Amino acid sequence: MKPSSLGLKPRVAVTMGDPCGIGPEILVKVLASSDVRDICTPVVVGDPGALRQAMALTGIRLDLRVIGEISVLDAPESPGQGIVLCPRELSGADIRYRNPSRATCEAVVLYIETAVRAAMTGAVRAVCTCPIHKAHLHRHGFPFPGHTEYLRDLTRAEHAVMMLAGPKLRVSLVTVHQAIAEVPRVLTRERIAEVIRVTGEALVRDFGIESPRIAVAGLNPHAGEEGAFGREESELIQPALEDARSPHWEVFGPYPSDTVFLRGHRGEFDAVVAMYHDQGLIPIKLVHFHDAVNVTLGLPIIRTSVDHGTAYDLAGRGIADEGSLRSAIELAVFMARNRLSSPVSRAGTAGPFSG
Question: What is the number of domains present in the chain?
Fold first, then answer.
């Protein structure tokens, strides 16, 4: 890795996401923040025209340095200058709020690929992603359900786990973009144990928590009530807990999902493993709607993301809230610093999501 990317002020590649959504707007708001510039050097991977359009919309003025190659990142940086890595420039006709073109969708995928390549080569210490619109990407040939699956493919990672992390509650998901009717069928003992292990490793390595406590939610009401309301707890989840036990973390459960997230929010656990998407995301969005961060665990790179979509209904109005992006960048920096620390110093590191 390049020495310039390893310091206390790391470079973070921030993908623009869909230029026709709120991505460019929340980006210029965050780039204008001295708080963000004080902790890292953001490198926007996206289109400078979309940023300038967002600057005109918000009245924010930024000095942008546009580059076309990752290698140019090693050039001297000017204080206060925003760096934009643009692998492919879009036309003004392509940047229409709420209406992305094929060219826009292809550029969105290229932004992700470029940011991952920069992280894999050490040019940046982390990747932070703005929202994409999956349905539009799928219409133009994107074969992956979303960011998480694509990042796993790009990095050749064996495992990828979605976690939503807020200041007081962290939730990992066993299944993600799965129809609710299919969840009981696709749950396996092996996958549940894998998610617990990946979560435990990340809590130690990336969040700096010594001996983290992980709670696991049941699938059924009252966690099955000893088989009265379902047998997944006894046949899948409990055996998976035994498989995932480690001297480095503690595992508890399965617990009823109507109380376990409250217990996690109160600090009894460092993370909760949920069985399916809405089981985990409803509680965390209830308590951390503007500051929760989507984190992909299990990758060889650090990846965080905003916890919201492209918000086409807000695009072009200048009122989008940048709080989740700010939190995502802060967490990426926090994780990058923890990865550079020794196990002893990791255990003592404090930060906005350290609990």
Answer: 2
pLDDT in tens, 247-276: 999 999 999 999 999 999 999 999 999 999
Task: Specify the 3-state DSSP secondary structure of 285.
Answer: helix
Confidence at 43, pLDDT banded by 50, 70, 90: very high
> 142 with 59, same domain?
yes
Q: Note whether 192 and 251 are within 8 A (CB).
A: no
Q: Which of 296, 23, 13, 43 is nearest to 150 (CA)?
A: 296
Q: Is 225 or 151 the better-scoring residue by pLDDT?
A: 151
d(CA 172, CA 161): 7
* pLDDT at position 63 over 80: yes
Could you tell me if residue 339 is left (phi over 0), alpha (psi between -120 and 50 degrees) or otherwise beta? alpha
**Rounded CA separation 125/6 (Å):** 7
Tell how far CA 130 is from the center of its chain.
9
**pLDDT computed for residue 102 by the predictor:** 95
Q: Are residues 18 and 137 in the same domain?
A: yes
Give the pair of three-digit tokens for residue 149. 């699956």
Residue span of the structural domain in which 7 resides? 1-159+298-355
Within this chain, do residues 150 and 178 fall inside the same structural domain, yes or no?
A: no
Chain centre to alpha carbon of residue 134:
16
Closest to 330 (Cα-Cα) out of 26, 126, 162, 122 = 126
Percent of the chain with pLDDT over 90: 81
pTM: 0.88
Buried b (16+ CB within 10 A) or exposed e, 196-221: bbbbbbbbbbbbbbeebbbbbbbbbe
C-alpha to C-alpha distances, 65 to 44, 72, 133, nearest whole angstrom: 10, 11, 27
Mean pLDDT of the residues in the chain: 91
Residue 243 CB contacts under 8 Å (≥ 6 apart), including other chains: 189, 190, 193
Phi, psi angle pair for 15, to nearest 5°: -75, 145
